[in-house]
Specification:
By secondary structure, the chain is of the alpha/beta class. It is 55% helix and 14% strand. The radius of gyration is 24 Å and the shape is globular.
């Protein structure tokens, strides 16, 4: 049973959320507070698995409360529940498990709880992982490793077989109905024809997994009405990566090497080699976490006088995320700090050309202002 702590200064909203969570048999609400200060004081004794927090509260807001409680209960996951979406960046800076807008919809809450169940389950499995554990890598493309060694790629019979596996992997350890799969993969087929294709493709995927000996199993669920990809002790790169960031203290001189390892572990966006629209939400979520983490590492390196390391981080950011303007600005500032004037100009024009050519927009006002001021100062110094 997952232990949940709820905090919301609106009593009715608190009661509604409690009722919705208690309808789910895997969640136990162990305490609910309208005063975030009281919740912070009680958190260490309660030791919750997850904390649901409203953000817009008087005196101590949800962001502040989350920061305080994570120091006291580092194992807890944070879920922000708020009526306003402009707090999203701050929420992701805390590496929250999820961010839900009010009024809370049951289907949306269920997605959060499923993600939470997966995190708790995988944490338990990871604690007992065997030395020859298999890992599924999903950053950029689907790949498989055993004991750190890359395994030969699975030969999928068709592109539909590959997408079927990818979708079940995306929803791993959760029920996926047959209707969902047929609507996704064969939307233009009638029900009978789509079902036939589904049965055939499921069989093909099962055979491929069996031959690869990965320890993955596709089970029939709910009287044959759907399937679940059971991962067992198999590790997932995105989960292990996010868990590593969540459990690390803020970057400092003692742990920066581990932060750097996690920064480099992210080899590309989630399933970015495939044109799967259904993966876009998770892709954006993980990308946002990585970018905030990367910028924090770069700022640490700059403040520590480690300019070459900061330069490398910014270069990697603009390589993987060329439309992230703040990465370009950070790179220009680093070039300026080491006297590379031509590199500053080159980087600005690279960004300008990219935005005009691909998006038909100009660089953001703050970047244009910084560049113009920099250019003016350099002209005066000549």
């Amino acid at each position: 049973m997952i232990q949940a702590l709820l905090v919301d200064d609106e009593r009715l909203a608190l009661l509604k959320l409690q009722m919705m969570l208690e309808e789910l048999t895997t969640i136990q609400v162990i305490a609910a507070y309208t005063d975030p200060t009281e919740a912070v004081r009680a958190a260490p004794q309660l030791s919750p698995d997850v904390i649901f927090l409203d953000i817009d509260m008087p005196e101590m807001n949800g962001i502040q409360a989350a920061e305080a409680m994570l120091k006291l209960c580092p194992q807890a996951s944070i879920v922000f529940v708020t009526a306003y979406n402009h707090y999203a960046v701050e929420a992701f800076e805390l590496y929250a498990l999820d961010y839900i807008l009010k009024p809370v919809q049951r289907s949306r809450l269920l997605m959060t709880v499923q993600r939470l169940e997966e995190r708790v389950s995988q944490a338990q499995q990871a604690a007992e992982k065997p030395l020859d554990a298999v890992m599924i890598r999903s950053f950029q493309s689907l790949r498989f490793e055993r004991s750190g060694q890359t395994l030969p790629g699975i030969r999928w019979r068709t592109s539909k077989a590959q997408e079927l596996f990818a979708y079940l992997f995306h929803n791993r350890n959760r029920f996926v109905s047959k209707d969902t799969l047929t609507d996704l993969l064969w939307p233009d087929f009638n029900e009978k024809k789509a079902s036939t294709h589904l049965y055939t493709t499921i069989y093909q995927v099962r055979q491929s997994l069996k031959q690869a000996e990965l320890g993955l199993q596709i089970s029939n669920v709910s009287g044959g009405e759907g399937y679940t990809l059971e991962t067992g002790s198999v590790l997932v790169d995105s989960y292990e990566w996010e868990k590593g960031i969540l459990t690390l203290d803020a970057i400092n001189a003692d742990n920066y090497e581990e932060h750097q390892r996690l920064f480099e572990f992210y080899s590309g966006d989630y399933l970015s080699d495939y044109d799967y629209l259904w993966a876009e939400g998770e892709r954006q979520r993980l990308r946002t976490i990585w970018l905030h983490h990367a910028m924090g590492i770069a700022e640490f390196y700059i403040s520590s006088g480690r300019i070459p390391e900061a330069l490398t981080v910014y270069q990697r950011v603009v390589q993987l995320q060329p439309f992230f303007e703040q990465g370009h600005l950070g790179l220009m500032k680093v070039y300026d700090s080491i006297g590379e004037r031509s590199a500053v100009e080159d980087q600005y024009y690279i960004l300008t050309d990219l935005l005009r050519r691909e998006l038909n927009v100009e660089p953001p006002a703050n970047i244009k202002r910084w560049f113009n001021e920099w250019k003016h100062q350099n002209l005066r110094s000549l």
